[in-house]
Amino acid sequence: MAHEVETYPTIEARIGLIARQIGNTPLLPIRYLHANPKVKIYAKAEWSQLSGSVKARAAFNIIRQAVAQGHLHENKTLLDATSGNTGIAYATIARELGISVALCLPENASIERKQILESLGVNIIYTSKFGGTDEAQEVAKELAEKYPERYFYAGQYTNDNNWKAHYYGTAEEILKRQPDLNYFVAGLGTTGTFVGTSRRLKEVNPDIQVVALQPDFALHGLEGWKHLETAIVPQIYDASVADRHLEISTPRAYELIKLLYEKEGLLVSPSSAANIAGALQLANEITEGTIVTVLPDNADKYSEVIKKIL
Ligand code: PMP
């Protein structure tokens, strides 16, 4: 007797299938960029999951919790303001769930990003280039308030399910592989990766030092914090978590893109290189210990930058 093939699994079943493709990323040793064998550096290759970046974790958790609570379903549209990895992650995941996505973007967002999002079926709502991402956030919020029956506002800068994805996911994966780590370093965008991972690590072992990293100028993916004093600090940021802040210069991050490629065989994004720059700075200050960081994505979406560096 032939078995019946289930062609239309429920949304919950499809969420279960997607869950298998989120997280559990490899923790790679960084071996050849520093000389002290008593200092170990490990970096989580976050491109090794659905949609190719660390933002798969936050986007999936935001969507999963919203579906579970009945705020998001096939007849609603997920709305947020982002042209970056979160937008790509929302679009990839929502598509598999039959949920539509609308994103508010400043009209001067890069053509490369617009094309990726359009090819994933995103409805792009353009905002003025003068208002930048702040205006795009405002417009998204206003639209969601005006049409609550149409939109679910995902709000990655304010949604606790962003940092919780790292509290329950990233941190637990690190603890499983390197339970004796001494330092965790991560750059600040929405701050979800840093806040969520650090909170859990420090809860398990308060001696772990957590270091928040910021670029000197907005660097791809680390724009959440933007220009230090003038920025709107993301609502999910908790200033009491970081033991220390490090600033990384753009030239140093770019130098690390080249070094990681030449010495470690890793072709990564600017924010990944900035994290490694931070880890190396720490490595130079200590005589022994284990440092863990993340590589938010690889170089695929940064061809213009990579062309100039390599
Ligand atoms: N790097 C890249 C490439 C990113 O897209 C992001 C997210 N904006 C980050 C780093 C920062 O991650 P988070 O939002 O969790 O702080």
From TrEMBL:
One Gene Ontology MF term: transferase activity
Biological processes, Gene Ontology terms: cysteine biosynthetic process
Coiled coil: none
Tryptophan synthase beta chain-like PALP domain boundaries: 19-297
Record's keyword terms, sorted: Amino-acid biosynthesis, Cysteine biosynthesis, Pyridoxal phosphate, Transferase
Membrane-spanning segments: none
Superkingdom per UniProt: Bacteria
Pfam families: PALP
Cofactor(s) needed for function: pyridoxal 5'-phosphate
Protein family per UniProt: Belongs to the cysteine synthase/cystathionine beta-synthase family.
Protein name stated in the entry: Cysteine synthase
